[in-house]
Amino acid sequence: MRILIAGAAGMLGRDLCTAFAGEEVVSVSRAELDITDAAAVFALVHKERPSLIINAAAFTNVDECETSIDDAYRVNAVGPRNLAAAAQETDAAIMHFSTDYVFAGDASQPQREYDPVGPVSIYGKSKLAGERLVQALCPRHYVIRTSWLYGLHGKNFVSTMLRLGGQTGMVRVVDDQLGSPTYTIDLAQAATQLAGKPYYGTYHLSNGGVCSWHQFARDIFAAAGMDVTVEAISSEMLSRKAKRPAYSVLDNQMWHLSGFTPLRSYKEALQDYMKDYKSQSGGTV
Ligand SMILES: NC(=O)c1ccc[n+]([C@@H]2O[C@H](COP(=O)([O-])OP(=O)(O)OC[C@H]3O[C@@H](n4cnc5c(N)ncnc54)[C@H](OP(=O)(O)O)[C@@H]3O)[C@@H](O)[C@H]2O)c1
């Protein structure tokens, strides 16, 4: 399979490049391909002629999206539109990543792929617009919604906790948002199982298990063997620019109905992350 990966220098993008290393991969960072530049996207896709385009590029700073609204829609909606239109024009399929933040967060049970959406932030709204454009413009799509990503190649909740906990011995973390943390290596490996199969459509894909950010922080310090006090606070006390869904647990229904093995639990994945993190940082957390 010849694969074009856009946003390849991002946290998920880097693990996608590794996971697809056995294929013929053309990977491009933002500096090499700005997905909001339609002419550049079409030119590259026509030149490289991939059979699959993977979009790992996004505007992921949820709070910044609230004030940079045009940029959020430019990257999260116009960008995927360009890639999907170029895929359709050249007979390629597209894999696009989206988010649990397309949901309002007022549900009380895990959200399935075809449950009603209702984003409460510009980030969520712009990502939903991107999904819809991909779905409309290129029927051979895999739209993958995932949640609470962390990985070895980008700033994320786990690395932030390890840094803050190490510096101060105490962190304050919200306990009124529930979700499923997902390791980018697990997600990237799962993506290789879908690629090339005619099982097009929308998928929820996250590690198993549910926790609050507060519980997750406790799990992180336990896995790292660090003695850090984790104080529970409410989202209101943080007063962030963007509202987050209170409950955004994803039911990976289409994944299991399609016959794929469920992703392992987030706690198991976290153990592996910690080993990988330690070896990357020379044995220390
Ligand atoms: N992180 C999470 O917790 C989370 C949760 C659910 C879903 N997701 C989704 O998962 C996907 C991957 O996220 P991630 O965490 O890997 O994000 P990330 O680390 O922020 O990576 C995104 C990449 O996209 C690049 N990019 C931004 N604008 C671009 C443009 N106009 N053209 C080309 N590239 C551009 C960024 O480059 P610069 O760094 O140079 O800007 C960055 O390398 C995204 O679709 C995201 O919405 C993420």
What does this structure look like?
Helices cover 43% and strands 17% of the residues. By secondary structure, the chain is of the alpha/beta class. It has a domain of 186 residues: 3-Layer(aba) Sandwich (Rossmann fold), CATH 3.40.50. A six-stranded parallel beta sheet has the order 2-1-3-4-5-10, sandwiched between helices. A two-stranded parallel sheet has the order 6-9. Strands 7-12 form a two-stranded parallel sheet. Strand 1, helix 1 and strand 2 form a beta-alpha-beta unit. Helix 1 packs across helix 7 and helix 2 runs parallel beside helix 4. The structure holds NADP nicotinamide-adenine-dinucleotide phosphate (NAP). The site of NADP nicotinamide-adenine-dinucleotide phosphate (NAP) has 27 residues, from helix 1, helix 4 and strand 4.
Topology overview:
Layout: E1 2-6, H1 11-19, E2 24-28, H2 38-48, E3 52-55, H3 62-67, H4 69-89, E4 93-99, H5 122-137, E5 141-146, E6 149-150, H6 157-168, E7 170-174, E8 178-179, E9 182-183, H7 184-194, E10 201-204, E11 211-212, H8 213-224, E12 229-233, H9 235-238, H10 253-257, H11 266-280
The structure holds NADP nicotinamide-adenine-dinucleotide phosphate.
NADP nicotinamide-adenine-dinucleotide phosphate binds next to helix 1, helix 4 and strand 4.
- Order of SSEs, N→C? EHEHEHHEHEEHEEEHEEHEHHH
Count, helices: 11
Strand content bin: 15-25%
Structure class: alpha/beta
- The gross shape turns out to be globular
Overall mean pLDDT: 97
The residue fraction in helices comes out at 40-55%
* Annotation, overall tally of beta strands: 12
Question: Could you list the spans in which at least 5 consecutive residues all have pLDDT below 50?
Answer: none
The CATH architecture of the domain at 2-146 and 182-207 and 250-264 comes to: 3-Layer(aba) Sandwich
Most strands sheet: 6 strands, parallel
Radius of gyration of CA atoms, rounded to a whole number? 18 Å
Bound small molecules, by name, code or SMILES, are: NADP nicotinamide-adenine-dinucleotide phosphate
What order do the strands of the largest sheet run in, or round the barrel if closed? Answer: 2-1-3-4-5-10
CATH topology grouping of the domain at 2-146 and 182-207 and 250-264: Rossmann fold
Termini Cα gap: 38 Å
Q: Determine the oligomeric state from the structure.
A: single chain
Query: In CATH, what is the homologous superfamily of the domain at 2-146 and 182-207 and 250-264?
Result: NAD(P)-binding Rossmann-like Domain
Under CATH at level 1, the class of the domain at 2-146 and 182-207 and 250-264 stands as Alpha Beta
